């Protein structure tokens, strides 16, 4: 039998990632409520490679801070298993990601509201984004100035290649956009990033570190959630393990599951919440039927288009030489600047792949270097070139995530079903060709060498799609597996309450009914903020 925890809490938050760390910080802010935050990982914001922006290459496949999930083989991935990295430390994926800050388009959130999710339109979520932001650019109308999350612009004029790219983009109808989180997303622009003074701005650093001294907040690391404790149709706590020791904690008010799009549906299913027939087949006794648990999985499927660059000192590959790395290390140590303080994706472009669209439906994120894999790391190659991450913004292909057994330590089965929707196939083809068009436009073409991937021999739709199937990766944005809504496949309502279970909410990327137009870290922090706001309002009204 589990050993009872010595205390009860008002709120228990399971998962200290982008959403969970944010929610726990806000719930404990007033000091009026006792909050327990559980995190399966053990590392915190002081973890060296998380602090240094370039350290992402050290963590992308490192099991100490990464769940290192892999997908099941399917037709869309050419029968391959695709890596699905997810943060396993305080701050979750905000502590290991590429640090790009993209809120998405207003239309993304208006669409959520049109699906029946009142309170989630752009006008509803904009004040939440502003509350969390600390950003000097843009307009006061659209951007926040005093929030805990510091956001900065990637500097221009640091890499000559990028200036040529901006000029070439203008010639193909994509002007420079000074604020990709502003009134319009369309165009080419420098990435806004969660980096300040050379340091990653994770939710562990921005939300949890300032909250550590609060007597009403307990943070427990190395805590693997095994199942929720249900009293009839009410969630009253959680059973978990720390170093093999079984424990349980009780919540007098609410439990908030913020374990991410992979582990949140897993925990619900381990607790008997989901598709009854599937649960029985996995050795779990069904408690509450919710057929949408684990369904509606979406992600940004991204082939990596690569070009050689002929100009010297035009890409970061020149920094791979040992003497240059030493120089960059000194620059970082003294000034908190330079290559080591940068995102890997300093510039990106958003565009429409066909006439008649109101807003962009595809993106190209440019890494001004080629990289190679060495063990658990991705290292910059000595060959000069660039890598383009190409993807459609609002993928229509959906998959699933379901437990394989009743063992909480076993990873679930992740089935993406990529490229199953025709719109995704058409969109990625158009986006790849847009990238080719850009590289063939002056003044960029004068420094562009061979097309390394997919290669000029891949010209037909089918040849390109076959290359995508056999080489593409995700951009690490899984969403949707505990969908918000009111239809028969929805898992939570617009207040993020699990349908049919009192005292239980889900707050993370899994509640997104559809993908947002860009990286998902910013929306996840917003979801954590908004969840805490709703939970505190309910507590006050009780």
Description:
This protein has a domain at 155-190 and 301-392 and 419-471: Cholesterol Oxidase, domain 2. Helix 5 packs across helix 13 (521-541). With 542 residues, it is of the alpha+beta class. Helices cover 25% and strands 25% of the residues. The chain has 13 helices and 30 strands.
**Main beta sheet:** 7 strands, mixed
Mean pLDDT across all residues, rounded?
A: 95
Share in helix: 25-40%
Number of DSSP strand runs:
30
Low-confidence stretches: 1-6
Question: What oligomeric assembly is this protein in?
Answer: single chain
CATH architecture of one domain: 2-Layer Sandwich
Which fold name fills CATH's third level, the topology of one domain? Cholesterol Oxidase, domain 2
Q: Structural class, please?
A: alpha+beta
The N- and C-terminal alpha carbons lie at a distance of 33 Å
CATH class of one domain: Alpha Beta
Rg estimate, integer Å: 23 Å
Q: Describe the global form.
A: globular
The DSSP helix count reads: 13
Fraction of residues in β-strands = 15-25%
Search tags:
25% strand; 542 residues; globular; alpha+beta; Cholesterol Oxidase, domain 2; six-stranded antiparallel beta sheet; seven-stranded mixed beta sheet
């Amino acid at each position: 039998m589990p050993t009872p925890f010595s205390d009860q809490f008002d709120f228990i938050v399971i998962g200290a990632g982008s959403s969970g760390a944010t929610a726990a910080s806000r719930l404990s802010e007033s000091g009026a409520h006792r909050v327990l935050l559980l995190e399966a990982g053990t590392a915190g914001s002081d973890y060296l490679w998380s602090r240094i922006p370039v350290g992402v290459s050290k963590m992308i496949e490192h099991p100490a801070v990464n769940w290192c999930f892999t997908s099941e083989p399917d037709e869309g991935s050419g029968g391959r298993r695709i890596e699905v990295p997810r943060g396993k430390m305080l701050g979750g994926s905000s502590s290991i990601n590429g640090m790009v800050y993209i809120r998405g388009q207003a239309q993304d959130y208006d669409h959520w509201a049109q699906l029946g999710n009142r309170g989630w339109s752009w006008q509803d979520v904009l004040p939440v984004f502003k509350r969390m932001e600390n950003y000097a650019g843009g307009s006061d109308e659209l951007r926040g100035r005093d929030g805990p999350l510091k956001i900065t612009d990637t500097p221009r004029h640091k890499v000559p290649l990028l200036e040529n790219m901006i000029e070439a983009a203008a010639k193909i109808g994509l002007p420079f956009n000074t604020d990709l989180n502003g009134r319009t997303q369309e165009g080419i622009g420098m990435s806004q990033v969660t980096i300040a003074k050379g340091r990653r701005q994770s939710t562990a650093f921005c939300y949890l570190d300032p909250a550590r001294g609060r007597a009403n907040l307990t943070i427990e690391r190395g805590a693997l959630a095994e199942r929720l404790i249900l009293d009839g149709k009410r969630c009253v706590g959680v059973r978990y393990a720390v170093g093999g020791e079984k424990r349980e904690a009780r919540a007098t008010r609410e439990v908030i599951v913020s374990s991410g799009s992979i582990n949140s549906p897993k925990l619900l299913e381990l607790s008997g919440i989901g598709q009854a027939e599937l649960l029985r087949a996995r050795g779990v006794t069904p408690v509450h039927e919710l057929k949408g648990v684990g369904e509606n999985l979406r992600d940004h499927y991204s082939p990596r288009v690569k070009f050689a660059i002929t100009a010297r000192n035009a890409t970061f590959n020149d920094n791979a030489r040992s003497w240059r790395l030493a120089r960059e290390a000194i620059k970082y140590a003294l000034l908190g600047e330079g290559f080591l303080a940068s995102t890997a994706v300093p510039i990106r472009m958003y565009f429409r792949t066909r006439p008649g669209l109101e807003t962009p439906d595809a993106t190209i994120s440019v890494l001004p270097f080629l990289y190679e894999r060495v063990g658990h790391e991705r290292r910059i190659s000595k060959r000069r070139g660039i890598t383009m991450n190409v993807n459609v913004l609002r993928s229509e292909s959906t998959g699933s995530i379901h437990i394989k057994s009743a063992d909480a330590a076993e990873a679930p089965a992740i089935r993406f079903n990529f490229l199953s929707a025709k719109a995704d196939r058409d969109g990625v083809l158009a986006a790849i060709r847009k990238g080719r068009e850009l590289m063939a436009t002056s003044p960029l073409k004068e420094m562009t060498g061979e097309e390394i991937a997919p290669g000029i021999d891949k010209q037909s739709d089918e040849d390109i799609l076959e290359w995508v199937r056999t080489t593409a990766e995700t951009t690490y944005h899984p969403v949707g597996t505990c969908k918000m809504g009111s239809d028969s496949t929805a898992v939570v309502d617009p207040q993020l309450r699990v349908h049919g279970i009192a005292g239980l909410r889900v707050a993370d990327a899994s509640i997104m009914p559809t993908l947002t137009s860009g990286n998902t870290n910013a929306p996840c922090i917003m979801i954590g903020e908004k969840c805490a706001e709703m939970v505190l309002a309910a507590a006050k009204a009780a």
